[in-house]
UniProtKB/TrEMBL annotation:
This is Kynurenine formamidase. PANTHER family: CYCLASE-LIKE PROTEIN 2. One of its GO terms (molecular function) is arylformamidase activity. One of its GO terms (biological process) is L-tryptophan catabolic process to kynurenine. The lineage of its organism: Bacteria, Bacillati, Actinomycetota, Actinomycetes, Micrococcales.
Amino acid sequence: MRDLSHPIRSGMQVYPGDPEVRLSAALELERDGAAVTALQLGSHSGTHVDAPAHTVAGGRTMDAVGLDELVGDALVIRVPGLADGATVGIDELGEVPAGVPGIVVIDTGWARHFGTERALRHPAIGVEAARLLVDRGMRVLGVDTLSPDPTDAAGTSEFPVHEVVLGGDGLIVENLTGLDDLPTRVRIGIFPLRLGDDGAPARVVAFVD
């Protein structure tokens, strides 16, 4: 089993404009007899799931997402060697089978930049590439970047890939890590916090020997 999630830490990188992550001791073992940590973070902190309600008015919230949607066979598509700000188009995807599993993970290698300024210059998924994957059966898009759409330091209000995936009542998982050497076909489990909101931090695992 392999963990594909970034650990939640104080001060970790978040999408521009999102709440900062802060962890602090609320109770201490020696003083209070138990240790309890106070958490301050946004629903899209670290490795997390975007529910349709994230960008779609009236879209499903996380509490309406079943775990059966988030556990299953996944297709891992590797697109190495991309330049800063590159677009992963249909050509970059390579040959996509007619019927893909419900979960598709795009490995750009950008997870190694998480926590740095370069993470903001990640590659993005092209809209037509996203539509192709949805048309061929994808229900959950996983990426190792801050977003499948372009990100800038000031944030953005345009999310065309979110519109394609979440607009089709699908889901997006952002900030995956540990994708190196995963098989092209692998069983994945995505386990978000049970929040009734627009998204939730998640523990993501690949079931590998």
